[in-house]
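Let's practice the habit of predicting before peeking. Look at the sequence and jot down your guess about where helices and strands might fall. Then scroll down.
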Amino acid sequence: MIEIIWNRVLEHEGQVFKQIRGGEFTYRVKGNVIQLNRTNRMVSKSIFAEALKYVPLENTVPLQRLQAPSYLFAILMDHRIRGNDW
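Done guessing? Here is the structure:
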């Protein structure tokens, strides 16, 4: 599943995503990490794989122990990334 999701992440690089509270951001992919434009944080493919254990998500609470939970939520729950998978 991570390969399917990661390919979608790659396809939508540079597009605008929206956090739960309305903040908008973009990201760039560098190898197996994404670099977020609104923070100095980088999120690895392995963190996305870990986050997938909790989808579908209603909020960011299950992701709080992972890096950049609000960004993970915004990306993973976006229709462009989740498709019809959950």
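How did you do? The two ends are 12 Å apart (CA to CA).
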